[in-house]
User: What shape does this take?
Amino acid sequence: MSNAPPKMTASGVDVFYGAKQAIRDVSIDVRQEDVTAFIGPSGCGKSTFLRTLNRMNDTIPGARVTGDVRLDGEDVYAKAMDVVQLRARVGMVFQKPNPFPKSIFENVAYGPRIHGLARSKADLAQIVERSLTRAGLWNEVKDRLGDSGTALSGGQQQRLCIARAIAVDPEVILMDEPCSALDPVATARIEELIHDLRGRYAIVIVTHNMQQAARVSQRTAFFHLGQLVEYGDTSDIFTNPREERTKDYITGRYG
Amino acid sequence: MSGTLVPEAPVRAAVPVERRPTDWRTASMQRRVRQRYAAERRFRLLGLAAVVASAAFLLFLLASMLARGAGGFVETRVALPLDLARAGLNVTPAQLRGPRADLALAGAGLEAAVDTAAEAAFARGGGAALLSDAAWLRVREAVKRDPSLLGRRVTIDVPVASRLDIAFKGGGTRADRAVARSLAPRLSRGLNRDFFRGADSTDPTRAGIWGALKGSLLTMVVTLLLAFPIGVLSALYLEEYAPRNRWTDLIEVSINNLAAVPSIIFGLLGLAVFLGTFHMPRSAALVGGLTLALMTTPVIVIAARNAIGAVPPSIRDAARALGASPVQVVFHHVLPLALPGILTGTIIGMARALGETAPLLMIGMRAFIAAPPERLTDPATVLPVQIFLWSDDVQAGFVEKTSAAIIVLLVFLLAMNGLAIYLRNRFETRW
Assistant: This one.
């Protein structure tokens, strides 16, 4: 384990939806070199917490976040923090594949274009190719970049969404149950992809599937009822959980 | 909180119920099946009947309009022999080429010359009364095209009076039909170009639709330019930016109510505000457009809000997560996806505005306007008002003009909708 400072830190985070508290006093460090998995039963707040990391909760009316979230030591919720830049630095992949109803090329090119990352058309084409290659989709779509992104299969769409997130060169990628709408083969492709991307980006993945968490992550956080029950190395969580609740959940007695 | 997650559910034994397996072949079961099929059939037939009935109404409307209105596009002409050399018109060729040719010919007494020729030619039939008021104008145009006509005997086809026109088409009084029969060898039919070029007139053979068509066009342009951007921007603001609170609820209710307000109320509002307060010109296309925009905007707002609300939130999330600003989310993703729906709503609103009569009567667009409007502030009328005015006219010649004007209105409407549908499909296929 390296001693480098964590990529993102959250300490004492509470999230409220109106009067209802969805997250209670959660503190977590996300390391650059690891894949971090959030597990827990439905409605435990793991997705809500994930969305605090790139301030996607801002768009939900009535949502309020307190506590301290930092990206490389910068306060994510500070007034000086520009949300647009934050979200370019902390990318996100959603549960249901949501490609834009545009061509495959345009899907990937959109992010670099709005942030002015490409110096020329050729440069943009290169970014698109590199992103699609990293997302393991290039060979399947290189001959039909002009086709609509929505015409791809579910698994391909999700990889397109990952390529789209990669295209703006983020530092962190948040994945909110990226495989829950996919079949096992497509899931395996995404998991391979997460392996390949590890190290280049800090990855946080929310999942229902404990085998998936065990397969892809190095660190696992178990959430229950809006609280962080246990957080540690994945191997420890799955073989030797400290908390009874964690043990019950991962052995399938609950959830 | 307990140390375990496993809920201690109370174990309650289910009460055992003795049930025999269902027999699907009993008479009552088969009756149920028959009833179900009968219900399906009834429903399908009802639907079919509704479609057939509405198609029949539409066909009847179109057929009767075409049958009655077709005559409105056709004029009856009579071959009028003229000896312009003997008429002694005092016009020089230079005057005929100049911009004041019309004035020169009128001043030289061309109209009287035409009347004289008609009196000579149709001494038994009724003389100059057989000709339309527009007859001498037709001669004037012919002379302007070919000044050499002034020096020789010619025969020019000129439109006949409304009475004879009707008789030649098979209507009118017995006496008129007798005149038409006696003149039949000299009568002919042709496309009534004046109908497409002229404006309202007291003589049905001279009355044209172009004035009203142009008035409608100008009015619609004003309405569209105001109602579309205002409606779409309001909808975008309400859907994407406005907080949900009592004020926005109130605004929403008000917009829904405005869309249901009878159109004549908007006419009164236009009268009070645009004419009364701002002293804008009466009967102008500008004021008509403003008034109709008041009426159309709520319709567009409602349609646009629905279309914007139907854009999947996942698309917004995807764009935001990439770091798109709210304006970029709206203009790159939400608006293009909502545009087909917005255009559909706009078509409905504009079609309603195009067919609207009542509010325009309130702002004075029912005046007799004999010249097509040149500017937005010129006195103008619109197609439905023109139809209303003609249908109210006592002269028999206006009956077919009314139907012809209705056909023009329907064609205009179809063209407008066709354009909008074309645009909508273009935007849809691009995505």
